[in-house]
Amino acid sequence: MPDLLLELFSEEIPARMQAKAAEDLRRMVTDKLVAEGLVYEGAKAFATPRRLTLTVHGIPARQSDLKEERKGPRVGGPEAAVQGFLKATGLKSLDEAKIQRDPKKGDFYVALIEKPGRATLDVLADMLPVIIRTFPWPKSMRWGERSARSGALSWVRPLHSIVATFGLETEAPDVVKFAVDGIEAGQTTSGHRFMAPAAMEVRRFEDYEAKLLDAKVVLDPQRRKDAILTDASQLAFAQGFELVEDQVLLDEVAGLVEWPVVLMGAFDEEFLSIPGEVIRATIRNNQKCFVVSDPKTGKLTNKFILTANIEASDGGKAIIAGNERVIRARLSDAKFFYESDVKTKLENRLPKFDGIVFHEKLGTQGERIKRIEIAAVEMAQFAKADTEKAKRAAHLAKADLLTEMVGEFPELQGLMGKYYALAQGEDASVAAASEEHYKPQGPNDRVPIDPVSIAVALADKIDTLVGFWAIDEKPTGSKDPYALRRAALGVIRIAIERGIDLYPRGLLEKHIKRVRADLSDGAISEIGDSFQRFFEDRLTVQLRDQGARHDLVEAVVGLGGKEVGLLSVVRRVEALGRFLDSDDGKNLLAGTKRAANILRIEEKKDGKAYDGAPDAALYSLDEEKTLAKAIGRVKTEAGAAVGREDFAAAMSAMAKLRPAVDAFFDKVKVNDDDAKVRENRLKLLNEIRAATRAVADFSKIQD
């Protein structure tokens, strides 16, 4: 079957837009093909700095003919209905319709409509201009004389040409005939801007890709990335160095070149006196270059690797020299910033925070730092950290935000605080907390290890969460302007990975008065309910992402309306999962669910809950007495085990219910003829439900 080749050739497409643009082009074209009844075999899109390309193979040469039966009015129906039917179906008269018999509803007219399929070439000629005109660039422009006209094309950069061919692999393809803003589709493109700018005619994708390669254009972004990474690694290795890999930078650089040429430059060794992260940020941000390290020490060397877009006649000497000049100037600035910053102690910068508003309803940055200090002392108890170090670390943790270096490179916040703290002689744990208190900043980021860092990280995130909850600035739908979901997940990960059992609602109630002293106890309780549910939702998402069964999580989270500590939830879920894998667990689950189902049916029928204590005097069967005693023992043992956070022991205690529950259902008729006995037995069933809820809500567990 025929293939489609489409290229949209323009001026420079920003690297950050290329991947999404390629995917948008693939999606828009293939969705429209399917909507037109043209099911294809495969499609792939590519992007370079100057072109978007799409190949779709295995497209039918034409649409299938459409045959449709359309039901009309009843025979003998109103004339208006008949005329509307004829107009809608294109029939000249009722003689062209057939009559369908229906003994119950009466006979009615049916039109058989046959619509011949169109040639795919014509379908493409209609759909492609619309896709090009409606392409969803984040930013676009109009240009030239045509830009003043109504309906002028808006594109990311000036669009120069369009290639659109369609045909069989064994035949010369047809050009899809259409034009957009005066640019007619054809089969002519250009190669590399400098090394092969001449126009060239292409036929289909294989021919197109091969000719581009000859014309110094690597079409596939992944192939460009692989080439850059391989060549850069080999160039560094040949000099006895090691490339410091950077996937984000690699993605960006591959979007800046069509023909990657890797070169190595150098800078003065004196700049190695500043932190390696500063050197890397300076070179990366200003010149999009990679840095190089010494494999023996792991420290940066005074070399860098750049990616040019041309094979220069001088072997790249002028390109290297130009990059070296810029990098030397930028590193000089960075060295000046660093040396200037070190001269001012971190605590001497803090008074400026009193004049910087954190949020109009939450006060200044200075007020926030004081709150974090108080919270850090409290969190130090959980993290087993030195309280004085935790307070000092919280005091200094934000100070580097006011330094020249962080002003120039915001991504170095925290890290520079650590370097400046060490330079002024602070304790290593205090210094580390400047960097680590921001962690984790995402699912792939590590959590703090040092107890002081843990305390400050928790304090910082809890202050943010409690503060914005107190002023009713909670996340809504997909909107989370203050990154509160990320902060909550950070608290959860720290709690789980560092073995700290935090109770979110308790934390809110303890800290909220520092932000809103005017809140009543009732208002705090209501806010606490919302805060707890928010954390339960985040914890549920986290555990599901880690592979936990969703029903087990739901059975433990928010158990009976009582808040359970974050770490306790995890341990309960793990213990519950192991218990339910055993025969005792499976059978007890079945018995508990049976009890719950009977209770639900009878309570609904009777219009009341059977939640009072059963009367032991009404027990007439041994199985009732045995079950009652077993429940009493289990409540005591399981409750004590839960109290000491020994959930494995709690499950072992629960297992002791199984024989008594099995015997009860084998021998006892719950809905006894005697109303009092029936009620008492239903209350006994409720005792089973209550006993198991000491550990989990078994009604939420799937069989």
UniProtKB/TrEMBL annotation:
GO CC, any one term: cytosol
* PROSITE patterns for the chain: AA_TRNA_LIGASE_II_GLYAB (PS50861)
Q: Specify the superkingdom.
A: Bacteria
Q: Which reaction does it catalyse?
A: tRNA(Gly) + glycine + ATP = glycyl-tRNA(Gly) + AMP + diphosphate
Subcellular location field: Cytoplasm
Q: Which GO terms describe its biological process?
A: arginyl-tRNA aminoacylation; glycyl-tRNA aminoacylation
What are the residue boundaries of the DALR anticodon binding domain, all occurrences included? 592-689
The answer to whether keyword Protein biosynthesis applies is yes
UniProt keyword terms in alphabetical order: Aminoacyl-tRNA synthetase, ATP-binding, Cytoplasm, Ligase, Nucleotide-binding, Protein biosynthesis
- Specify the signal sequence span: none
Q: What is its EC number?
A: 6.1.1.14
Q: Which InterPro entries match?
A: DALR_anticod-bd, Gly-tRNA-synth_bsu, Gly-tRNA-synth_heterodimer
Supply one GO molecular-function term.
Answer: arginine-tRNA ligase activity
Under HAMAP family, the record lists: Gly_tRNA_synth_beta
Give the UniProt family note: Belongs to the class-II aminoacyl-tRNA synthetase family.
PANTHER family to which the protein is assigned, alphabetical: GLYCINE--TRNA LIGASE, CHLOROPLASTIC_MITOCHONDRIAL 2, GLYCYL-TRNA SYNTHETASE
Instruction: Describe the subunit structure.
Output: Tetramer of two alpha and two beta subunits.
Name used for this protein in its record: Glycine--tRNA ligase beta subunit
Q: Which organism is it from?
A: Bradyrhizobium sediminis
